[in-house]
Amino acid sequence: MRASGFRVLPVLLLALCGAAGAADFVGADSCKGCHPEAYEAWMQSKHARAVSSLSEQQQKDGRCLSCHSPDQVAQQQASVSCETCHGGGQYYSPEYVMKDPELARLVGLVDPSEKQCRSCHDASSPSLRPFDFKESLKAIDHWSAERARRAARTEASAPVTTPPTTTAKK
Ligand code: HEC
Ligand code: HEC
Ligand code: HEC
Ligand code: HEC
């Protein structure tokens, strides 16, 4: 068991009490603080601007918002944001929770699935080609840079194995 049990308990209780409704969103800007690479990649994607594809009139039309900006009304988050895919971050975004993959998922972090993509990328969306999950994933890649940074960090913090000096002591 982790030493952080005392801190884990309150977040777990809060999450369970709130289980009736979904967790609140903290906003993409909060994620940005700790995931700058993911944020930059997302900003370049059409998901980050999905609401701007709609005219002013359409931006008030729930039928369009349901895919282009599904969390605008309830969570004040425009377009298809981090939390539209990963779940509201209220309980999982504190750092000590994020560092515990199991706990993070227990309190709301979602691993986005193909099914989830297809809830918007369905036959009614104006795509010329049918939705190809694997190809589409490549087009929204915001994790490779994240993983590279983490790998570099792990390497940097690994114990340095200095080769024994060859200049023999006399
Ligand atoms: C206080 C810093 C912090 C904030 C804020 C934060 N994260 Fe994290 N997140 C982390 C850390 C630390 C990890 C663990 C991996 C690592 O060390 O990079 C992580 C891991 C993740 C993972 C991978 C989890 C896994 O186990 O595969 C996802 C997905 C993620 N965060 C999404 C988000 C989203 C979405 C937000 C905003 C709602 C967010 N994070 C906010 C620090 C943070
Ligand atoms: C909440 C609805 C929603 C979900 C969930 C969603 N998308 Fe999207 N996606 C959109 C919308 C809307 C657009 C078009 C944005 C625009 O141009 O206005 C889009 C655009 C895209 C594009 C860009 C297409 C292009 O022409 O460049 C890709 C790629 C994509 N999505 C992949 C995915 C993948 C992969 C998933 C699942 C991991 C996913 N999407 C989940 C709504 C969604
Ligand atoms: C079922 C989900 C869904 C609904 C509902 C929806 N869209 Fe979309 N829309 C998408 C997806 C997904 C894409 C991106 C298709 C692709 O390129 O793969 C898209 C793309 C678009 C684009 C093209 C954007 C670009 O970058 O070229 C426009 C414009 C658009 N939608 C307008 C609308 C309007 C207006 C409404 C409401 C009448 C609406 N959409 C409702 C899912 C939806
Ligand atoms: C359209 C849905 C979608 C959106 C929007 C989205 N993500 Fe993701 N994210 C994914 C998917 C899918 C994966 C897992 C990809 C895989 O494992 O192949 C992922 C993976 C990640 C990871 C995991 C990296 C790792 O080490 O495993 C982090 C961190 C992350 N996303 C953060 C964010 C942040 C921050 C934002 C907003 C700035 C965001 N995501 C927006 C779908 C999304």
Automatic annotation (TrEMBL):
Q: Where are stretches of biased composition, namely Basic and acidic residues?
A: 144-153
Q: Which Pfam families match?
A: Cytochrome_C554
Q: Which domain of life is it from?
A: Bacteria
Please list which residues make up the signal peptide. 1-22
Ranges for the Cytochrome c-552/4 domain? 30-87
| Location of the region described as Disordered in the Swiss-Prot/TrEMBL record | 144-170
Ubl conjugation: present as a keyword of the record?
no
**Low complexity bias: start-end ranges:** 154-170
Q: Sorted alphabetically, which keywords does the UniProt record give?
A: Signal
Q: What is this protein called?
A: Cytochrome c-552/4 domain-containing protein
Q: Which organism is it from?
A: Myxococcus landrumensis
